[in-house]
Design a protein that fits this description.
- The protein is built from 15 helices and no strands.
- It is mostly helical and 303 residues long.
- The radius of gyration is 18 Å and the shape is globular.
């Protein structure tokens, strides 16, 4: 089982592309997952919570300067890049809102995996992911309202409650389970990544299936925007790390953490608040950042 989970984890990008293609060609194969996107993301966040302990949160306070630099980079570079690209490419309102939503979301667990493979500062990566996720119920709606408000109506309160329900509550529940049933959690830890990967792939398939026609119409433009958003995020994240004098291990962590977003959350929020089309950028980002993250990790691991 451990070998199988490792194989699936290492080939996540390939599975994501396969699911996207199947959903695009045969939408009916994944349309059934669409009503369950929020639940599936909750499963992913619950799994993340089960891998955490209270001691993990103390790391944030042991190195506040590094985490603060990471948070500032995370919540300035990606949102502003998203707004700039949406404006330059004159994207339709829902698509523009979806791109900005990707930019305003916190870091995801995939960035922790890529940082580990890149031989970067894993503790910093995990601390940044946790800190940005904790701040997300406030920061993500504020930034989305500010940057996407010109395209589409944004409800701060509704979005904040969605993030609390789909992210914060499941993580806390998972953390509590880990504290109370540590022995049981140890036994199932090996399969947790597989459960999360399956849930993410089902979310991706559902979004692609329900937007198949629109993706074929606007897919190339959105793909270009998503790729630029991600690659520029890596580049500017690395520059920010060097400006603040971070060593190579920390620079690797900051680069990957800034460039990779919690696209599953972006998809869930888009489907709930903006409509199915707004979830397209998040779905494409889910596929692409696994590809680019693997390439970045492979490159960094040799440095």
């Amino acid at each position: 089982m451990k070998k199988f989970v490792t194989f699936v984890s290492q080939n996540m990008a390939l599975f994501a592309v396969t699911v996207a293609v199947v959903a695009l060609i045969v939408p009916a194969s994944f349309k059934w997952t669409t009503p369950h996107v929020t639940t599936l993301l909750g499963v992913v966040m619950f799994g993340m919570g089960m891998t955490l302990k209270l001691e993990d949160f103390r790391e944030i306070f042991r190195r506040p300067r590094d985490v603060l630099i990471g948070l500032l980079a995370q919540f300035t570079i990606m949102p502003l890049l998203a707004y700039t690209l949406a404006t330059l490419f004159k994207l339709p309102a829902e698509i523009a809102a979806g791109v900005i939503l990707v930019g305003t979301c916190p870091g995801g667990t995939a960035s922790n995996v890529m940082t580990y493979l890149a031989k970067g500062d894993l503790a910093l990566s995990v601390s940044m992911s946790m800190a940005s996720t904790i701040l997300a119920p406030i920061v993500t709606p504020i930034l989305t309202l500010w940057l996407a408000g010109a395209w589409i109506e944004v409800s701060f309160a509704a979005m904040m409650m969605s993030i609390v329900k789909v992210v914060i509550a499941p993580i806390i529940l998972g953390l509590v389970v880990n504290q109370l049933f540590a022995d049981f959690v140890k036994r199932v830890t090996e399969i947790l990544p597989l459960v999360s990967i399956v849930a993410i792939l089902l979310i991706l398939g559902g979004v692609v299936a329900v937007n198949a026609v629109k993706i074929l119409e606007t897919g190339l433009t959105v793909m270009i925007v998503v790729v630029l958003h991600n690659l520029l995020g890596y580049g500017l994240g690395y520059v920010a790390a060097k400006i603040f004098g971070m060593n190579l291990a920390k620079s690797k962590a900051l680069t990957i953490e800034v460039g990779m977003q919690n696209s599953g959350l972006a998809v869930s929020l888009a489907m709930t608040h903006f409509g199915a089309a707004a979830a397209i950028p998040g779905a494409i980002f889910s596929v692409w950042h696994n590809i680019s993250g693997s390439i970045a990790a492979n490159y960094f691991s040799r440095k």
